Amino acid sequence: MSGKNPMELLIPGEGGIARAAEILVGGGLVALPTETVYGLAARADSAEAVAKIYAAKGRPDFNPLIVHVSDRAQAEQLAVFDDRARDLAERFWPGPLTMVLPLREGAPVTRAVTAGLPTIGLRHPSHRVMRAVLEQTGLPLAAPSANRSEEISPTRAEHVTTSLAEDCPAVLDAGASQAGLESTIVALRDNGEWSLLRPGPITKETLVRILGPETQVENAGIEAPGQLARHYSPGKPMRLDAQEVAQDEFCIGFGEMEGDCNLSASGDLNEAAARLYECLHLAASATQPRIAVAPIPDSEVGRAINDRLSRAAGES
Ligand code: AMP
Ligand code: MG
């Protein structure tokens, strides 16, 4: 035993939101439900609180955290918004879009949150429980996904408790996440350029329609260190675009390729995105030593699914 307290399981309707806010204001960690995946939250203005996130996840300190806000006014205290940022906020907030924007001078966030970068990643989530916690604390909350670094993202409270165990002192359980895939991350630079740092539920096609062509930047890797890392790993070999399945493989199916767990029998990419981590968790804990995944169309949110799958397979 490490001597740490066991995890506290909080329920929204039973005082859980108030208790979560109390822990967060006091500088503690709470895993919170969002519409994308469960996040491991801490107050963004406290170096001590944010250090607990990096420690619990085993996350490298050069990988910055997304800060969650309760409204646009709070966001504008942290970052400099231009017309494009206001337009995207208007269209997609609250929702699964993170904007990387210039950090405002004197913004009340500790340096570790941005990993020392001159930019900050901001998101206004739509999940009603997450919003209630943000409103009760009155604080911006740093919240990466609530799993150990490199492991599969959590879409249920049980995934959090399995991955983080006693390193996360409390989890607020509001059932399964709806979008089930991490937010789209878009960087808006002050020279007018933009780029997609992580594909997600808001598709590249949609962003191109609004912002015009994306700028290809050669140093995007440095700008978004988290994107380079091996990630979402199920801990066993995984084969993508499988046309047939071997006996010793757990099959993640799609459409007519049924599989042991089907992402979407009707071939609906949004349903597949919502079920991706559920199937990856099942594949990770299955008896089969290997995983095969059916081909997924590389359009719309399929791009984000394929991005996560190729990282999970260790291909990027
Ligand atoms: P997660 O840990 O799953 O929440 O992922 C957060 C992602 O946001 C990581 O890949 C980070 O690299 C990225 N991110 C957060 N803040 C910034 C920033 N200021 N600049 C670039 N990427 C960021
Ligand atoms: Mg993550």
Note down, in words, how this protein is organized.
By secondary structure, this protein is α/β, with parallel strands linked by helices. It folds into two domains: 8-211, DHBP synthase, CATH 3.90.870.10; 238-312, no CATH class. 32% of the residues lie in helices and 17% in strands. An eight-stranded mixed sheet has the order 2-3-7-4-6-5-9-10, sandwiched between helices. Strands 11-14-12-13 form a four-stranded parallel sheet, covered by helices on one side. The protein has a two-stranded parallel sheet with strand order 1-8. α1 crosses α6. The site of magnesium ion has 3 residues, from loops.
Topology:
Elements: E1 8-10, H1 16-25, E2 30-32, E3 39-43, H2 47-57, E4 66-68, H3 72-78, H4 83-92, E5 97-102, H5 111-114, E6 119-123, H6 128-137, E7 141-142, H7 157-164, E8 170-172, E9 184-188, E10 194-198, H8 204-211, H9 220-223, E11 238-239, E12 249-253, E13 261-262, H10 269-285, E14 290-293, H11 302-312
Parallel strand pairs: 1-8, 4-6, 5-9, 11-14, 12-13, 12-14
Antiparallel strand pairs: 2-3, 3-7, 4-7, 5-6, 9-10
The protein binds adenosine monophosphate and magnesium ion (MG).
Adenosine monophosphate binds next to strand 6.
Characteristics of this structure?
single chain; 316 residues; alpha/beta; DHBP synthase; 8-stranded mixed sheet; 4-stranded parallel sheet; 11 helices; 14 strands; binds adenosine monophosphate; binds magnesium ion
Give, in spatial order, the strands making up the sheet with the most strands.
2-3-7-4-6-5-9-10
Q: In what range is the share of β-strand residues?
A: 15-25%
Given as residue ranges, the uncertain stretches (5+ residues, pLDDT < 50) are none
CATH topology assignment of the largest domain: DHBP synthase
So what's the overall shape? Answer: globular
CATH class of the largest domain: Alpha Beta
Spatial extent as radius of gyration: 19 Å
Structural class: alpha/beta
Total beta strands: 14
Distance between the termini: 37 Å
Q: Biggest β-sheet: count, sense, barrel? A: 8 strands, mixed
